[in-house]
Amino acid sequence: MAPGLTRTHRLCVGLSVALLLVVGAGAPNAALPDLAPRGWAPGQLLPVALSPAAVTAVLWTAYLLGGVAVYLGLRGRVAALRSWAVPVGLGVLALLTAPFGSADHVNYLAYGRILVGGGDPWVEAPVEWAGGSDPVTSRVEEPWTTEPSVYGPLATLLHGLAAHLGGDSLRQGVWVWQVVVVLAWLIVRWLLRRVLGPGVHGRVDVLWTLNPLVLGVGVLGAHVDVVAAALAVAAVAVVAGRPGPVGAALGGGLVAGAGSTKFTYAVVGVGVVAAWWVVGHRSARLARLVGSLVAGFAVVAVALHAWAGPHVYDQLVRSRQAVSLATPWRPVLEWARDANGEDTTRLAISLSAAVLAVVLAWCLLRISRPAAPTAPATTTATAAVALWVTACLTLAYSLAAPYSLPWYDLLAWAALPAVRPGIVDVVALVRLVALAVAYVPGRVLGMTPAVEDLTLGVRRGVVPWVGLVLWVVVIAAGARSGSGRWRAPRRAGSSPTPTR
């Protein structure tokens, strides 16, 4: 450890988190939807009414400081926290604030409300539910008022639970959902500390627990991605901690849970299978493990989707060729669609992005390694490899996807502690800082024309080029790396053999 860097890291974390909490504890603003009346849930704590310009400046400062904090924590190899006091304290503070950075949590409660009311959230538009007079669904903000749910059946069940417990009060339902998110965030830390060796517990806290970007974008934003990440990490923990078909089946059920919360999080199943192969499982044993994983996945996924009905992915299919403003694909769309047509250009972008994601994943795997020996086939080895592969695949998808938002990276950050320190940390950090800054304040309402022009200028004119630079960096590093070619052990107990 470097004491100077450790002190500076703590200072940056403290300042960044304090700024984030000020936004969440203040009055409604351009980042913070109005959830009043509060009912029995916490209300506004600070007599602070930030203007659109002020909230933008505060959040930009917080996220930039957060990026510096993570970099210093990694560089200084900051030690793990000695107790749970700080994480639990941060969780309590998060529950005293209102979510900010988007209005997604309002959508969650609206879909849950429709479910509890006997409707189909994958078909019903919030603005039309109950004639537009429902006290929860009528609070959904543009541009989502006419959009059915894009979330999976397990996520929607949890949204329904929050809506049921919250009753007619939007604030009460959102607070219940915040409790779910905070618990998921704490569970990720607990699981990572159980399955990864003590030598990487400091990385767990730098990259997850004390990461202001994860806290701001995920926890204080109350995004469903935190819950999906917890299910994905739980799948790895169960598979690693219970080697054999029973553990594989239970892990498969958790993979289905993660994918049924948010579709892309099922990628953790690929990480698990890759881990079994890398640590030395072969032929008949590997086939039995994969079969058990698939069986567990099928039981849970089929049950959830049979309950949800045939329209679960209708909205996802309709939006499959969307292109968000802060990705490098947006300039491509705007340049090419006049010449080639809107539909043709979007299709070409989707296909190109799929190819690019494969290339980036290959490069990220080449330039990184799990933060634990891959042999013998211990709990730590299996978990580290599964999370390493998951981190690389998730980060590659986030980098390449035509439609990408900052909270889409949360699974990568939950898995990143299992990756050996290196360039992947830097790539993930630059991307998340850039995307977090791009989507400040985060709502389409409440901004002045000047603030809207400024933030859209950053989102459309700056951040896409950061993404393009990251593509180049990852591909160049992957092309240069000769250490990425290696063979997994032929049997459990042997070591990977580098080849040149």
Average pLDDT level: 93
The count of helical stretches stands at: 20
Radius of gyration: 22 Å
Q: Unreliable segments (pLDDT under 50, ≥5 consecutive)?
A: 483-500
Pairing-aware structural class of the strands and helices? mainly alpha
Report the β-strand fraction as a percent range.
under 5%
Spatial order of the strands forming the largest sheet = 1-2
What's the number of domains?
1
Number of strands: 2
Multimer state? single chain
Main β-sheet description: 2 strands, antiparallel
Structural shape: globular
Keywords: Membrane, Transmembrane, Transmembrane helix
Protein name: DUF2029 domain-containing protein
Organism: Fodinibacter luteus
Transmembrane segments: 50-72, 84-103, 174-192, 213-240, 260-279, 286-308, 347-365, 377-399, 419-440, 461-479
Which tags fit this structure?
mainly alpha, disordered C terminus, 500 residues, single chain
Task: Outline the structure in words.
It holds the Pfam family MptA_B_family. Keywords: Membrane, Transmembrane, Transmembrane helix. It comes from Fodinibacter luteus. The chain crosses the membrane at residues 50-72, 84-103, 174-192, 213-240, 260-279, 286-308, 347-365, 377-399, 419-440, 461-479. By secondary structure, the chain is mainly α. It is 63% helix and 1% strand. It has helices at residues 3-25, 52-75, 85-95, 104-116, 153-166, 170-195, 201-209, 212-219, 224-241, 245-259, 268-278, 283-308, 314-318, 329-340, 342-366, 379-400, 410-415, 423-438, 449-461, 463-480; strands at residues 486-487, 497-498. Strands 1-2 form a two-stranded antiparallel sheet.
